[in-house]
Design brief:
This protein is an all-beta fold. Helices cover about 0% and strands about 55% of the residues.
């Protein structure tokens, strides 16, 4: 267990949008306002307890200040963040860097919400802890208790989310079951049940031929060929819905699969070796 303190500054925007300011600070802004403020990003770090090897923690809070601005030549650009982390044990600063991809959508269409994505979720820098080399992997944006892959931000306001990350060994994948939504909102069929899987490691993982199942017949889902999880990527396997933004995986079952009162989901690799178990319901977190 380590106590770490994080802070961050925005170091570069490329290609640079009009009226750019705030580089080398924790609040970078851009654009010519149209009746409101400029758009921009803010990063606020904090102090937290961190376990190495796959336990998620909050790296900091990301805020997108999203106001209508006059368009420039480019409505998509990359924004670079440098995060300084001080580990309490050695009282030394380490720097980790990440890139955010910004899509400043046109404000006159049916979907004016801006999008923020992370094209690369693994820090190029690493740190050695107890003789092992670790990098920081961002595994998503957390809002209202839910972790998502992409940050969607409505116009005319500030939208915030925690950046969730792990300290993972360099050069290794780490695929785990992150969540089971056992009680869907769709009446009778609970088609929107899902199991969420995440690669918390620093390397991609080929999960072709891996199987997700519980302990009852008919609950086996085998991942198709060429299924690869990138570092930090989350996917969901739905009972009977298809969501491309989560990988598009579905059991295609017309009946509920996951016991509302509690059960255990298992993930086995192509050699039938258990990779991850996730118990939920009575007596489990």
């Amino acid at each position: 267990m380590s106590t770490v303190t994080a802070s961050g500054t925005w170091t570069a925007v490329s290609p640079a949008p009009p009226n750019l300011s705030g580089l080398s600070t924790d609040n970078v802004t851009w654009g010519v306002p149209v009746g409101g403020g400029k758009s921009g990003y803010r990063f606020a770090g904090g102090t937290t307890e961190v376990k190495v090897g796959g336990t998620e923690f909050t790296l900091g809070t990301f805020t997108h200040q999203n106001f209508p601005i006059q368009g420039g030549a480019n409505n998509q650009f990359d924004v670079d963040l440098a995060v300084r982390i001080r580990f309490e044990e050695d009282d030394a600063d380490r720097q980790f860097s990440f890139r955010f991809h910004h899509f400043e959508t046109p404000n006159d269409g049916p979907t004016p919400d801006d999008e923020v994505d992370l094209p690369t979720r693994v820090s190029p820098e690493s740190v050695t802890i107890d003789g092992e080399e670790y990098a920081v992997v961002i595994t998503g944006f957390k809002q209202n208790g839910q972790i998502v892959n992409k940050f969607i931000s409505p116009e005319n306001g500030a939208n915030s989310a925690d950046i969730v990350a792990v300290l993972s060994r360099v050069g290794r994948p780490d695929v785990v079951i992150a969540d089971v939504r056992s009680k869907g909102q769709v009446k009778r069929t609970q088609a929107d049940e899902y199991v969420e899987i995440v690669n918390q490691g620093t390397a991609s993982a080929d999960i072709s031929g891996w199987t997700l199942f519980a302990d009852d017949p008919g609950q086996n889902f085998t991942f198709p060929p060429a299924t690869v999880l990138q570092p930090g990527q989350r996917i969901r396997i739905y009972t009977n819905e298809v969501h491309p933004e989560w990988g598009g995986f579905t059991y295609g079952s017309g009946r509920p699969l996951w016991n509302d009162k509690g059960d255990t989901a298992h993930l086995r690799d192509a050699d039938d070796t258990v990779v991850s178990d996730y118990s939920y319901g009575a007596g489990n977190p």
